[in-house]
Amino acid sequence: MEGQALPVTPSTISPRQDPSLANVLPDLGRPQEAQDAAASPADPGTLNLRGAGTSYVQSVHWESILTKIRGLKEDLVTDSKPPPGSHLFYGSNRHATREEILAAVPARPVVDRLLALHFDSYVVTQCSSLTRAQYEAFWENPSGTSIAWIGMMFSMLFIAAQLQTFTIDSINGSADSLRADCLLKKDAFREKAVQCLVLSRYTTGGPYILETLITILTGEFVLLKESATDGWVLISMIMHIAMRMGYHRDPDHFPRISPFEGEMRRRLWTAILQLDLVLSLEMGLPRSATNTHIDTRPPRNLLDSDFDEDTIELPSPRPETEWTPILPLIARARLITALGLICDVNTEIDVPSFDEILKIDALLDDVHKRAVPPLLRWESVAHPITDSPTLVVQRVSVETTYYKARILLYRRALISYQGQKPTEQDKESVRICLESAMKILSFQQMLHEESQPLGRLCQLRWKITHIFNQDVLLATSILCLYLQDVDKFEESPETAKAQAPWSSNRADEIRQRLTISHKIWLQMSTASAEAGKVAKALSIVLGNIEACAEDSSASYDFLADLDAMPLTEFGFNSQYLPSGFYSPLSFFDNVLETRGT
After folding, report:
1. For residues 331 and 391, is the Cβ–Cβ distance under 8 A?
2. Which pLDDT tens digit goes with each residue over 102-124?
3. Spatial contact of 45 and 284, defined as CB atoms under 8 Å apart
4. Which residues contact 299 (CB under 8 A, 6 or more apart)?
5. Residue 244 and residue 288 in contact, taking contact as beta carbons nearer than 8 Å
6. Mutual orientation of helices 147-171 and 108-121 as an angle, nearest 10°?
7. 0.70 cut: is pTM over it?
8. Cβ–Cβ contacts within 10 Å for residue 562, how many?
């Protein structure tokens, strides 16, 4: 080895210089500035020092956007009580023996019912490697079953018990005792899942460990919307365990991995990448995964019935005109190519050039038009009445992810808009942000109407309420910021008429759309404390706007609504919100903190 030149290690390559993207984005990589170079004009972000902990968010995070809206921090007082946090980190985590864990398994009819609910929900079922043969084998010989597999089953029961509480809320709001029972079961199932992880020494990896961890994370941070900080730390740990187990390398490299196991590994790794990106965007921090060390191919469009543990060779994927539970996972994985680059440029110190933004936008548009399966593209189908409610919701989810990505890419111009002599680039960026935000709020209105009793999506009301609305909150913050300083953004009437037809009166349209959105949040607040928080913040923003137009006949007494909802009832906390396909209802949580200053 003496005298040999040292090779360049992969760690010296920037994620933005990924060779696989060179033909699409050849100019994205930039050399590192010299240490004595002039300081970057970019905002370095926000560092909050509080008694509850220290937190950092990037300059284009929603928190930074909302702190620019006057009146929120002054008019709202937040609860300093911290969120519960992950049970893996802060639970009692009493060690349990195998015998104690098996004694806690409910009777089979109860487990059958709960697992059926879990799989019907399509929340995390694409990651599950639980098979009918394994399930039957467990009931035949529980003591001979892997403790990690039992932990995976308990994590699914945890999700199902939480879903039951949502169903009870939507069917009979007075069924308090039944709901309390479901909550107790949920906590017990989660405790047992964590005890199984500890007993199996989960940090060393092994079968069913990752499935269990992802299911717990989904239950805590997607459905329950607990501390997003813990979710970001947990997904990082999950990714490191997965890489320790080789999930970042395609299974075809390793002949000992069966076709069934290899395909399940691809599904699981794709889900991990998506959660990593979503939680990183939520926290306003860099993602853990980069393209320099990953070659795992995406999963195939297959039904679970198309292959099993005895399959010698995987069948050809089904055409993407045919829906499977895996198809949305595949579609979002393709969007990650562009969304990941957006996350990278938003967390870089240097401000990206407008040419770079245009190149990423072109890639995003190309993926949206050509790589997303037509079955999941909103504009490419006629939405017949034969479409299932699940397909409609998945279609909306993919579509709003696209519009959210455009906001994340262009919103820097909206935040730093000078207003005196804006460039054409600034004007175009603002237009894209506003149009995308309006599209998202139009989806909110449609979903809300269709999820009412007797509506087409009534049976999925829990999913719309607890999962989908994340993107709505990003759109809301952008539109509120625009309305606050509408005079700065509005063009002269002569110029406006020469632009798109809607731009001349876009401020009025935005007010109307936000007023509709406010009424939706207000209606949802009867069953959701977090919806009440959003309604309260919108009351203040719209109330300030209406105060400047006393002759408006469409206005109503926002302050009366505000006074009718005591602040202590809503339990404000300091959790951050994901900017991915997750939990929008906690949108104003962190930005409404007093910050102790």
Report:
1. no
2. 999 999 999 999 999 888 887 77
3. yes
4. 263, 266, 267, 270, 326, 329, 330
5. no
6. 70
7. yes
8. 17
